[in-house]
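Suppose a colleague, Dr. K., hands you the sequence of a protein chain of 139 amino acids and asks what its three-dimensional shape might be. Before reaching for any lab equipment, you can write down a predicted structure in token form. Begin with the sequence itself:
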Amino acid sequence: SVMDPGSKDMGRKMWNVQRSWESVPEEQEEELAAATAEPKGVQAEYFRRFKEAEEDKRLRTVHIAGLAKEATEEDVRLLCKQFGEVEALRMDKDNDGECFALVEFKERGSAQVVKRQEKYLVEERVLIFTEAKTMVDTT
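The predicted structure, expressed as tokens, is then:
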């Protein structure tokens, strides 16, 4: 049977399954085996596309450190616009109170260029562009 790969029930079955076969009652072994099996057909394609989209998003996102405290989103957007179109942007402060930005470019190439160069001198400040460890969450 085909299950909706986006359903919460399917997600629970796929990821929150008990891994220890010894403690599973015999009558539940078949159900557990079905739930932990590799997705097939439509589900496999859905998960493959989801992983590809997440990887693409990760590769298009950069972390910018060294921003001035008075820097605005518009300042960062104008700076990054020189390298390519910005899809999403978020500014925040780290645990030490230092400003940083997460920028998601529309194209991978733009992100690769700024990460390869890494350091830029902007208005007497060194800005450091690196691989982002988290994504820009605009919601």
